Batch of 4 targets.
Target 1
Amino acid sequence: MATTTCTRFTDEYQLYEELGKGAFSVVRRCVKLSTGQEYAAKIINTKKLSARDHQKLEREARICRLLKHPNIVRLHDSISEEGFHYLLFDLVTGGELFEDIVAREYYSEADASHCIQQILEAVLHCHQMGVVHRDLKPENLLLASKCKNAAVKLADFGLAIEVQGDQQAWFGFAGTPGYLSPEVLRKEAYGKPVDIWACGVILYILLVGYPPFWDEDQHKLYQQIKAGAYDFPSPEWDTVTPEAKNLINQMLTINPAKRITAQEALKHPWVCQRSTVASMMHRQETVECLKKFNARRKLKVCLGQFLQPCWFPEISQVRPLWAFSFFNYTSKVKKVNSQLSV
């Protein structure tokens, strides 16, 4: 069970190599001395945190303690000491889901169905526990190990919030631009449906290797999202089954009240009957596009080390999507923008 203790971290754990780094935290592999069990230790320098940041840290730890699911990175311990706070999570060693897909020899629509099923299982558990993730994106979809068919694990609850039932309220901007829902961009009350919208964006990418909404101009990107202006262009979508497109349409429904829920999505034929509904054809073009998509995501991270977000300057919870040229999007973007201007 995840608990907050005052025991000195170094008395119980041995730290090893760095796995990742943030503005106020670092993630390192660690081993519990009494058991030899490995964990990922998120080490937060609390001396650098504002009062508001302290509240966010407490919220993240509280939320992570609630969530116990095979498709969610689990919090095992929480240790608070003078100047530092340690969160001990599952050590997941399989890397990002999207990176694993491009390394596979075979990838089909049925594989995409299996991926989104696991993501939806994680989201359903969150929603049943009164948690909205608010930052579903490829970077937060990890694999438990490098073994074949390793479980997908949802990570990073730094922007997650707690809600009561189907509560809708204005919780502020939070997330990553390309995955934000229309209701968030319109500054309307929102809740659990924002996670389903992000799942729809992720599923679209899983099937063709590029996102449904894209523009180098942030304002135009948000116009596209608010209008729900996406399509299924030829030739890449010609080989995708109608059932897959139907599920995407239900996830990317502009009205959150009419958007499919996680529970309903898991009962969709394309998910629960994929052996007979989803195509088994190898999607080489998707893999090639996804390689480019991954490369540009990595470039975004590198740029993010030197730049600061400039669109909602008053908001610190919108995670930047740095402007970089996407491949072969020009004609699609022009088409969408011309439709929006009519």
Target 2
Amino acid sequence: MLDVERILAEFAEITVEEDRCSKKNENRLSKQEKAARYFEKIKQSRLAKRAEERKRQRTARKRRNREEKIVLKEELNIAIDLGFEVQMNKKESTHLARQLGRIWGLQKRYQGLKTQLFGLTPDFSENCQKIVTGFDKFDWKTHDKTAHDVIRGSDLDKLIYLTPDADAEPLLELSKDNIYVIGGIVDETGVGSRTKMKADTSGHKSYRLPISEFSRRNTEKGNWTFNQMLALNQVVEALCLFSQTSDWTTALATVVPARTGFIFEKDDQNSEENPKNE
């Protein structure tokens, strides 16, 4: 009888231990499920904000396209360096082609904007024609060689590279004599500024758009990116707007996506001579 009682007692202990393990596993699974639901909620929130931002940009773009052609105060020379295209995957290359299509829309709208494409390979040109209607009929200068191969002599000193790199000096003024080089890069990995490295290697100056100088960061709770890397067409439009208005706050507020968390506020003391961070 004692053996039976001992066996029953041991069985009861085993059952209790199994229950404890089962509850621990349930708790662990519950935490994992909660974490998964939390991250899914964040993901859906970001997707919703991006959709809202795209809708806002489309509406603004259509409104601007309906407006009359704008004459810039001075000629604005832009060079798109497509030498990075071979380093991108198919998705990034497709985004790049679409951004070039939007730049052509700006070219038609802003009188005085002169855009040239450098390093345009036959393969990428063919890809652009498949993605962007009428790409082969766009009336802008294209070169299959780099800017350094095409531009010679003292004109090379006019090349100014634009980069999102935080270490670069802010671009506060524009000159009709300069050629502003924008790297044709769509980088979803965020590995860094290849344009600045190229500028440093070639001995040219590099500047960034003065986003930090003319904005403040949103301190309210939200999934802000605070990412200063803009699409090519957004950079070109910011330059056009500044050329037209001489006001970085207005220019940047128009093109910088709301999801970045940068807030641009107009006040009498906010000018290129008195940026906010100084």
Target 3
Amino acid sequence: MKLPIYLILYIFPLITFCQVDYNDEETFRDKMDVTIEELLSTCTGNQRVGISSFNKIQEFWEFSSCYKTNKIISIMYYSNQTKFEELYVIQNDKLIYAKESEIGIPINSFDVITWNCQYYFNNEKLYTHISLGHGKTESENWNPESIIDTFQNRLIELEKIKK
């Protein structure tokens, strides 16, 4: 009889307090989605388009800015019957959102979304991410923080395009 009481009194509270509150992340994502949608709708007027080949493949860039500190960078390229897309949303000169997509496009067929991942940032740190489909997020070696390095490299490439 002592064992069940011990489990109830000591172990159960520990398990309860160790749980991650996913509602906080979901609430954060919901609020950020509203902010991102507002930025996407207001930053479309001042748009520049470019093409690069920094990564040995043609990449199509769209760059929009509004209020000097808010920017949207969109990059798209094709390889091996797959369309790759990257989207970065910057507010007050800080990355707040990034999205990567891989869309399989077999010849003589319609688009099939194979994978995407959305990254949400708070105070310049990755706060949460959410993925859909089969892709690199399933690899044991995948590090969601790598999107920050990718973004920093994209900023360097953007400066080269602007010159």
Target 4
Amino acid sequence: MDSVYFYSKKPDGSLANEGRPLVMVDNGKPFNINDPWQQAGDEQAGDGIYSLTILIDNSAQPGRYIFTFYMRDKAGNLSNSMVDSIEVVP
């Protein structure tokens, strides 16, 4: 796999992260609040399990957040999407 990323749709229908994908990592680096994009809470480098720790603070919109995941292989082929969601309650 070359990359794994997802888009996050907020309860109001807008995309989080200004519509940019949230890139997951497989680098074995524990979560670090000061460098969350590279030190994202991945347990073991190179195991094929990609991670990204997301923090949700009390200013987040309550409701269902929809995550649409994509994987791209080293030849540049894009996978079918996988969708999951979480519910944020006040």
